[in-house]
Each structure stands twice: as C-alpha cells, then as structure tokens.
Write a structure and sequence with these properties.
By secondary structure, the chain is of the alpha+beta class. The chain has a 6-stranded mixed beta sheet. It contains 5 helices and 6 strands.
Length: 143
C-alpha cells in the first residue's frame, strides 16, 4: 500500500469525525483545490479551503466517503470513489467521482475532483438515486 493513500485515508477519517482543522493539516498553506473541475473556480489557500469545508460540514451528515480504487505515481494519487451522506433534511446524496491529488512531501498541494454536480443537486432536491449511481456504489472498498 502506498504512502499517499494512507494520508488520504487519515484525511477521510478526520472529515468523517467533522474535524476541519485536522483535515486542513493534510493540506499545504497554498493548496489549489478544484472541488468540481470545469464547473467551479478553484479554492486557493487554506483559508478558502476552511470556508468551503465549513459550508460542506453544515450540509453533510453520516458521511460515508469511500474509495473504490486508487493508483499512485510519484507524488500523485489517483482515486475513484463516492461521497455518500445525508442532508440536514434527510435526503441521501451519493456522488461518484474521480480525483487527482498532488503531494509535496506529506502535504496535499493540488486537488482536482471530477464530479457531476447535477447528480448531487437532483439528490439534494429529493430525487432517488439513479440505477447507474446505485450500481457504482455496490462495489468493495479498496484495501
């Protein structure tokens, strides 16, 4: 198992525990985070990342962020996973995504998530998870 995936797993544990400061401790001060590549402008720096995480935290409950597959190449980690959580009004949101994280030492300096935000928007509005999303969720988590 690679070193980068272990760092991401510790970050995921911190996020599931709703510990924003611990999550930020895995990021460089000048992180560039594209939460939704090609849809939203990137978040730049820890202060902006803290604002985004604080906003997310208010909307995400019973977080089950899972990684299905990953690969490491030098200072880069590629992941396929799902953000799976409940909204404050009880709607399940399960958004499959692919992500690329760039590291400098043990810190994340770049993060790009490739995700279809319209899937999350439909689910937040109360639409049931589609068959294709459900099929993607029924896979084992990466060891």
């Amino acid at each position: 198992m690679g070193q980068r995936i272990e760092i991401l797993r510790r970050l995921i544990q911190a996020w599931q525990a709703k510990d924003i400061e611990k999550v930020l401790s895995f990021m460089s001060d000048d992180i560039v985070w594209h939460y939704a590549v090609a849809v939203m402008p990137p978040v730049r720096g820890k202060a902006a990342a803290r604002k985004l995480l604080t906003r997310f935290q208010a909307d995400m409950h019973r977080i089950e962020w899972r990684i299905f597959a990953y690969a490491e190449a030098g200072d880069r980690l590629f992941v396929e996973g799902v953000d799976d959580y409940l909204t404050p009004d009880g709607h399940r949101v399960a958004t499959p995504y692919a992500g690329v994280l760039d590291f400098q030492g043990d810190l994340i300096v770049g993060w790009r998530d490739y995700v279809d935000l319209s899937v999350a928007a439909e689910q937040k509005a109360g639409q049931p998870l589609s068959r294709q999303v459900l099929d993607l969720l029924d896979r084992p988590v990466a060891p």
